[in-house]
Amino acid sequence: MAPSPRASTGSLLAGLAIFAAAATWLVRVFPLTPTPTAALCFGAVIAAALLISWGAEAAQFFVSQGLAVAFIALLQVVPEFMVEAVIAWQAGRDGRVDLVFANASGSNRLLTGFGWPLIFFVTDFFHRRKHGRPLDALRLRPEHVIEVVALLAASSWYLVVLWRGHLTLLDSAVLGGAFVLYLFVLSRMPSEEEEEKEELLAPPRLLVELRPRLLRGAALLGLFALGGVVMWGVAHPFLESMKEVAVALGVSQFAFVQWVAPFLTEFPEKVTAVYWSRTVKLAPMALLNMVSSTVNQYTALVAMIPIAYSLSVGAPAAIPMDPLHRTEIFLSFATTLYGVACLAKLYFTRVNAVIMLALFALQFFYEGPIDVPHLGPAHGGFDLPPIESHLLVAWAYVALAVAEVARHGRQLRLGAALREAVAAMR
């Protein structure tokens, strides 16, 4: 006799949970070589990402979708928090503050500059397969304005940090408080409608239909807890194994910290995004996942950096910025500014995705100074020093953000959507 669909779904959930836990135990206990370690960690991350994704889809019917996604995003960036904390702690001992800003700026730009276009193009792929025509835009709901406004507010604080030229415990207090406020506002938003449960896939639907209520709550909390533990458990072995591979391939430490490490630690978000992007209906949830992860990084993660640094030093201490650090942070801010300008109309278009991905890719072609053509003093002009290419890309983001707002001025819905969201708060 064939097992029932519910039994098969339950077995799938249990199997993924057992595999994720076993793989984490193996890489933490046994001294494996880099290749099997990376393979086991990769599988554990995939399994954990699926489990917490299904948990989030089910949880949105009992708490607000935004809060469920924000909580999942927080679990997913646990590895990134651990890496950044270690880097900040070591910077307090050896003075390598450049690695602190490299990791923070690289992770933010990966989430926004690469993550958002990834969601659009994956959704577009599945949309073409199903409907035979390209996707025009990813459309957010009015209540999703909370995440967009939070991202704008959190990233704007970095203008203050750039103006001061250092990161301090004051920033920890401000950004930490902003993170708590963000979660509080999301907790007041309404949950999903009952009739939408029928559109869920089998695993999250099974979780939603679990009875009694206590069992359902325990199952959801268990999935979230297991996902968080797995993400935490495999973070260090995964990074160390991949670091050995990167060193063998000749990748510099700065490049590893800025790009390779964030890509690996943000891998859960990418898996969740691809999973949710399979339908146009769930794609906004994938985009919210990326936005929430970015908010978490701009607030909670950066708030943790001066704390870890000061604890390492043994006294309250500021982390100084040199011109390179300022350029990298400004580029991260500019990337986010363009992203917020795109979402201010509550939809994300193909043009937005192409521009964002193109400018993100442009950062890797040339990182040195560019001698901008100009007239010198001999021809009635003036001397103009070479400009860092990353600074030019940053100003391109800013200019495009202004152009986006100017072009869609009448379609901008932040104010109206924010009023609707506040009115809907419980």
UniProtKB/TrEMBL annotation:
It comes from Anaeromyxobacter diazotrophicus. One of its GO terms (cellular component) is membrane. It is a multi-pass membrane protein. One of its GO terms (biological process) is transmembrane transport. This is Sodium/calcium exchanger family protein. Gene3D superfamilies: NCX, central ion-binding region (1.20.1420.30). Keywords: Membrane, Transmembrane, Transmembrane helix. The keyword Membrane applies. Pfam families: Na_Ca_ex (PF01699). The keyword Membrane applies. Residues 40-186, 221-363 form the Sodium/calcium exchanger membrane region domain. Its main location: membrane. It is found in: Membrane. The chain crosses the membrane at residues 12-31, 37-56, 68-89, 109-126, 146-163, 169-187, 214-234, 246-265, 286-309, 329-348.
